[in-house]
Amino acid sequence: MQQLIDFLTLADPNVRYVVWGNVLLSASAAMVGAFIVLQKKALIGDAVSHAVLPGICAAFLFSGTKNTALMLMGAFISGWLALIAIDYITSRSKIKKDAAIGLVLSVFFGAGMVMMTFIQQSGNAAQSGLDHFIFGRAATLIGSDLMIFSILAIVLLLAVGLFFKAFALVAFDRAFAEALGYPVRKLDLLLTSLTVLAVVTGITSVGVVLMAAMLVTPAAAARYWTDNLKHMVAISVAFGVFAGLTGAFISYTAPSMPTGPWMVVVSSAVAFLSFFFAPKKGIVPRWYNQRKNQRIIAEENTLKMFYHLGEQDNRFDDGRTLADLVKTREVNENVLKAALRRLVANGLLYDREKQWALTKTGYLRAARVVRLHRLWELYLTQYMDIASDHVHDDAETIEHIITPELERELEHQLGYPDRDPHDTKIPKLQTNGHKENR
Amino acid sequence: MIAFWIILTGALVAITCGLLGCFLVLRKMSMVGDAISHAVLPGIVIAFLLSGSRDTLPMLLGAGATGLLVTFLIEYFHRRANLQTDAAIGVTFTFLFAVGIILISAFTGQVDLDQDCVLYGEIAYVPIDLWVTSEGTVLGPRSVYILASVLLIVVLFIRFGYKELKLTSFDPAFASALGISTALWHYLLMAAVSLATVSSFESVGAILVIAFLIGPPAIAYLISDDLKRMLAITVGLGIVISFVGYWMAYWLNASIAGSMAVVTGICFASVFTYQQIRKKRLARASEATG
């Protein structure tokens, strides 16, 4: 607990550097990442973060010192060249984006490895710690690094703020943006440069391999919580900052723990939770909804069986056995039994010793479903000119979906009909309900 | 002799990865290879912690398991959560790689593994780990035998699944109409890629695996449209690249895996530039005549 308080009050200047550094880099990466994910360029981040290695090595070979600004500049140039190369290869040959990304990524990283061995053989004492650029070590952040980070983060923030509308348009409807006269190619180039900048900001603390995750993962998670772009960017930044803080805290309490990987694990955990549990779009809520719909369909189909049996002998109140019901329609018996149980519990059916009968509300529900089915069949034959023996399957689906408003509209368009295309009666509910069909 | 073994190892990896890579490139799934080669890290660490040794079999099993896990997760999030494929790949493999690095840091004392070696590999050490029979006969480096058997498996897989692989790559709808399960062949291919990646990267590292998975097939794809010719060109390129790469590394006294990746890049750049120039010349010629 004391550790948490120490951490949060930022009493230790080292902690302060690490925390602010992490917050700045994860926020700017997550912000740019939102647009990258929307443009379906998530793997670009992976390519850039590998491709900065030769730039870092070249800067080191050139200057002989670990000057952060110079190395970030080198990283920016080689990351940028890699993206230009990917773009050039995909536009000028039949090589697809995925192959171009993989090729450029591995070749650039390979070139970096070759240069790295040069550095190792050079005997330059300053080389120690250079590999922190590959795997990251936030604990080594110092004040001057933080200055550079802040400048980069502000540049990113301003650029995204200024071009927000243009980026949004390009991300959602490229052709439309082109038609409106937006310089789409230039905007792409700008976003590319911002991506490289965001990756470069993060490499000292997260490392090149995992920086791709800080770009993509918070944004992918945010996509599950909203459809509004502004909200998505905000949520993405919030997730990124949370991961950055947690990562910094973990390596503060356990100094042997690397910050970058923990940041990635935390933000992946947030992403996995979002994939599973985000309302509406998550796997679990969607599965639950599907199940609910399937149950409603099974229940309505069961009620229809009672109605059809009632129509045959004109006795809508009679109890029916399981055998009677199974005869009317092909159905899985377990599904049918479960539906019967639920209908009894909801007061739509009476349970009379192995027989079931419609209650008054049950009858009304059953009649409505049958009515929607027949109205739709009639609509298809009259307006879509579909033969009357082809309309049943379609109506079987739509009957569970049509809303009361649509029902009124259908009825109005069809001129309040009495009979469906098979010349059976369309049940009417408003007049006097239960007894009307007798 | 050392040079021979290293070049042979490189060529075996290049051929194994390249043959499978052809199908990945055609299926626009190259980055899945990238994902697998990163995601095997936690599998190796866990296998190492459980078995307590650097024996090949537990390593292969652990790495193979996480390799398959990452392909499964990518498919799962893509299908079930409607997550776009690129984001699914980006999220899952970075997560597994991060877990691997954390495990290494947490058990530093116990794990004789270096995160660098996963990325860079240790192809230079291949000739040291020799396979010696009980009678004392030296049969050559152990990894050459492992890689050779994996290559054999991959060749047999492609030989007997050629029709299915080809159909599911080029026309999945037609393939399913013929009753070929696209999902089954997807996972079989992924299993083969995992196997190839896992057995290769101990000697050559994740980055060279990606370079060999994507590089030679991409070059072959530039040159030819015919799948059989693509496979043949890939095999040829694999041998040339590992040969030239080794000599470049020897000459520059630099990382062997890195040099091989760079040579792959140079090959691609030359073929690409040659085609661009020829295209331009053809365009100019047709302008002149027309």
Q: Can you offer a commentary on this structure?
A:
Chain A folds into 2 domains: 2-279, Orthogonal Bundle (ABC transporter involved in vitamin B12 uptake, BtuC); 287-436, Winged helix-like DNA-binding domain superfamily/Winged helix DNA-binding domain (Arc Repressor Mutant, subunit A, Orthogonal Bundle), CATH 1.10.10. Helices cover 73% and strands 2% of the residues of chain A. Chain A contains 20 helices and 2 strands. Chain A is elongated, with a radius of gyration of 32 Å. Chain B is mostly helical and 290 residues long. In chain B, 81% of the residues lie in helices and 2% in strands. The chains are: A mainly alpha (438), B mainly alpha (290). Chains A and B meet through helix 3, helix 6, helix 12 and helix 14 of A and helix 2, helix 4, helix 5, helix 9 and helix 11 of B.
Write the layout of secondary structure elements.
The complex is a heterodimer of chains A (438) and B (290).
Chain A (H helix, E strand, L loop, with lengths): L1 H8 L3 H26 L3 H10 L1 H11 L4 H25 L4 H26 L9 H4 L7 H20 L1 H9 L1 H6 L4 H23 L1 H15 L6 H25 L5 H19 L5 H31 L8 H7 L4 H13 L3 E4 L2 E4 L1 H24 L8 H7 L5 H10 L25
Antiparallel strand pairs in A: 1-2
Helix pairs in contact in A: 2-8, 2-11, 2-12, 2-13, 3-5, 3-6, 3-12, 4-5, 4-6, 5-6, 5-11, 8-11, 11-12, 12-13, 12-14, 13-14, 15-17, 15-18, 18-19, 18-20
Chain B lengths: L1 H25 L3 H22 L4 H25 L4 H22 L8 H6 L9 E3 L5 E4 H19 L1 H9 L1 H6 L4 H42 L3 H26 L3 H34 L1
Please state the structural category of chain A.
mainly alpha
CATH architecture term of the largest domain in chain A: Orthogonal Bundle
> On the 0-100 scale, what is the average pLDDT of chain B?
85
Q: Report the count of strand segments of chain B.
A: 2
Question: Beta-strand level of the residues of chain A, as a percent range?
Answer: under 5%
Alpha carbon gyration radius of chain B = 20 Å
Look at the structure and name the CATH superfamily of the largest domain in chain A.
ABC transporter involved in vitamin B12 uptake, BtuC
Distance between the termini of chain A: 76 Å
Overall tally of domains of chain A = 2
Largest beta sheet: strand ordering of chain A: 1-2
